Amino acid sequence: MEEVVNMLYEKKFLLSLLFTLIIEIPVLFVLLKCFFDKKKEIKDKNIIIVGSLASILSLPYLWFVLPPYINSAHYIFIGELIVIIIEAIILNQLLRLSASKSFIASFIMNVASFILGLIVFF
Q1: How far apart are CA 19 and CA 52, in angstroms?
Q2: Residues 6 or more apart from 112 whose CB is under 8 A from it?
Q3: What confidence score (pLDDT) does residue 80 get?
Q4: Which residues of the chain have pLDDT under 50?
Q5: Given this model, what pLDDT does residue 3 score?
Q6: Which residues have a Cβ under 8 Å from the Cβ of 47 and sit 6 or more positions away?
Q7: Residue 17's closest CA among 50, 48, 63, 49?
Q8: End-to-end CA distance of the chain
Q9: Could you report the per-residue pLDDT of 37-56, keeping only the tens digit for each?
Q10: Which of 37, 76, 92, 104 lies 20 to 30 A from 28 at CA?
Q11: What does the CA dihedral 24, 29, 34, 35 come to, rounded to 10 degrees?
Q12: Which is nearest to 60 in space by CA: 5, 122, 9?
């Protein structure tokens, strides 16, 4: 784990993005196929593409855009909330999920990657 601590910020970001994709896409896939889209109307490749796009578009804001504007004491809560909202909008618009299902899916995806990230990297 010492290697992760000594990495450049940009390398930590890329590692975090890869980790996020590895966690959040399967979580989204399971949520859609087992709970939200029981008729199997959403194609597998669309889930993968939209799940990837959601993470790729939101994570840079959390790592590079938001830090100068958010008090460090509240950064994790506010930052994750913003990411959940952004990803929920992407899921809602591109997968045509309802607003509630999009928010629930985004929330579960981000909680899973956040908790697993804490376990793996800290």
Answers
A1: 12
A2: 23, 24, 27
A3: 95
A4: none
A5: 64
A6: 25, 28, 29, 32, 33, 95
A7: 63
A8: 8
A9: 878 799 999 999 999 999 99
A10: 76
A11: 60
A12: 9
